[in-house]
Amino acid sequence: MIESTLNQWAELLFGIYGGILAGVSYEVLRFIRHMFNNKWVTVICDTAFWVCSVAISIYVMMMVNSGIFRVYILLAIMIGFGLYMYFISDLVNYIYVRLHKGLKMIYNMVMHK
User: Fold this and answer.
1) DSSP secondary structure, 4-16, as one string
2) For residue 70, how many C-alpha atoms fall within 13 Å in the half-sphere facing its CB?
3) Pairwise CA distance, residues 13 & 21, whole Å
């Protein structure tokens, strides 16, 4: 009984980690979407996010319990995604905005010389 409880905690933590990975993929695709600001890029990025999220969910379930679907693992993934969006997203978004402005400035300097 103790061993199964420890396994469930490991599954929960791995699910939270998977949710954080889904948050990172969301941020990367959001950055790409804002760089190009095109309807088709938005469609492609949204589709890519859902494909990444499903792949991460399947990967987490395969790693923690041989692919057995358990609701608490799915909830842990959602909790991890929510934690990422609440605590880390603003910082990452700030870094992406600064990076985008810096790249745009370098591009303008090189192209207008």
Assistant:
1) HHHHHHHHHHHHH
2) 18
3) 12
CA distance linking residue 7 with residue 20, whole number of Å: 20
Q: Where are the domains of the chain?
A: 2-111
For the entire predicted model, the pTM comes to 0.82
Q: What is the block-wise mean pLDDT of the chain (113 residues), using blocks of 10 residues?
A: 73 92 93 87 94 91 85 92 95 90 89 76
Q: Which two tokens stand for residue 94?
A: 């700030």
The number of C-alpha atoms within 13 Å of 26 and in the hemisphere containing its C-beta is 19
The Cα 108–Cα 88 span in angstroms is: 30
Angle between helix axes 71-83 and 2-36 (nearest 10 degrees) is 50
